[in-house]
Amino acid sequence: MLSFAIHLGKNKPLVKDKIIMGIDPGTSLMGFGLVKVEGKSKLQLIRMDILKLSKLSDHSLKLKKIFERTLSLIDTYHPDEVAIEAPFYGKNVQSMLKLGRAQGVAMAAALYRELPIVEYSPRKIKQSITGKGSASKEQVASMLKSLGLIDEIPKLLDGTDGLAVAVCHHFQGGKPELDTNYSGWGAFLKNNPDRKA
């Protein structure tokens, strides 16, 4: 992986460019976006897309595909950090369980490559991008277009949702106040002792 540094002056530290991968997990569609942060603030889109899982009927095969695709993206683009949307609370327990598994598999792939992970709530992501926590997916996509990250709004907004997670992470400085931050398996297990076997 190539890394770049910009010298800001005699006594100022070098600012390293970084790549952030954002993931909007799902069991039918997984949206993802990768941005390059140049210096302190310039954002450049690397890739935005969706992983279609609806043709796979078995849930375990979907989880396998999510894991493999996340690893493939990490190995191709070498992100420095991964940001992921946390599951929202819904009335359908089975849907929530499946969504949580999808998120967990994507997180496991990033942790497998020793990448730091930060979770953001859907409301936090929308607020960070649009200034309004109750914004629609269309409003989020429109703001990403206004920021110059995309040229047009796609039909399926899962990709822009994944991109929004990465941009939110950048806007939050990578250190959310109320959201969850993991730097590896050790940190994850420390924060979740009840998940140890």
Looking at this protein, list some descriptive labels:
197 residues; six-stranded mixed sheet; single chain
Question: Mind sketching the topology for me?
Answer:
Elements: E1 5-6, E2 15-16, E3 18-24, E4 29-38, E5 42-52, H1 59-77, E6 81-85, H2 93-112, E7 117-120, H3 122-130, H4 137-146, H5 158-171, E8 181-182, H6 185-191
Parallel strand pairs: 3-6, 6-7
Antiparallel strand pairs: 1-2, 3-4, 4-5, 7-8
Structure description:
The chain is an alpha/beta fold and 197 residues long. It has one domain: 2-Layer Sandwich (Nucleotidyltransferase, domain 5). Helices cover 40% and strands 22% of the residues. The protein has helices spanning 59-77, 93-112, 122-130, 137-146, 158-171, 185-191; strands at 5-6, 15-16, 18-24, 29-38, 42-52, 81-85, 117-120, 181-182. Strands 5-4-3-6-7-8 form a six-stranded mixed sheet. The chain is globular, with a radius of gyration of 17 Å.
First-last Cα distance: 35 Å
Oligomer: single chain
Unreliable stretches (pLDDT < 50, length at least 5) are 1-10
The CATH class, by name, is Alpha Beta
The H-and-E topology, N to C, reads as: EEEEEHEHEHHHEH
Query: Domains counted in the coordinates: how many?
Result: 1
Characterize the biggest β-sheet.
6 strands, mixed
CATH topology: Nucleotidyltransferase, domain 5
Total strand segments:
8
Number of helices: 6
What is the CATH superfamily classification? Ribonuclease H-like superfamily/Ribonuclease H
CATH architecture: 2-Layer Sandwich
